[in-house]
Input
Amino acid sequence: QVQLVESGGGLVQPGGSLRLSCAASGSIISIYSMGWYRRAPGKQRESVAVISSGGRITTYADSVKGRFTIARDNAKNTVYLQMNSLKADDTAVYYCNANILMQGMATPVGSWGQGTQVTVSS
Output
């Protein structure tokens, strides 16, 4: 069993910043790519940012490029999302995703966190 626990969401004014964290725990052998996704009210879930296992390769949605930064600490099994210059359009539930090789498994499995609400409003 693996758990992903997000934290750091909340209410922030436009132009403000938030930092999300997602920690993985459980019977983990290795964590491959990790990423952040979001679902805004009335919209489908979309990819926000993804980071490779070594942290060297990152990809971002066009809507967040230059404002958001994804990073990871493999020693802590944790991925972060630094969000700057937040806009009302960034309001959504943010979900952490990780491809994890668990004990007893032959291939990695995608796991999701429970989500954390980010609201950008004045």
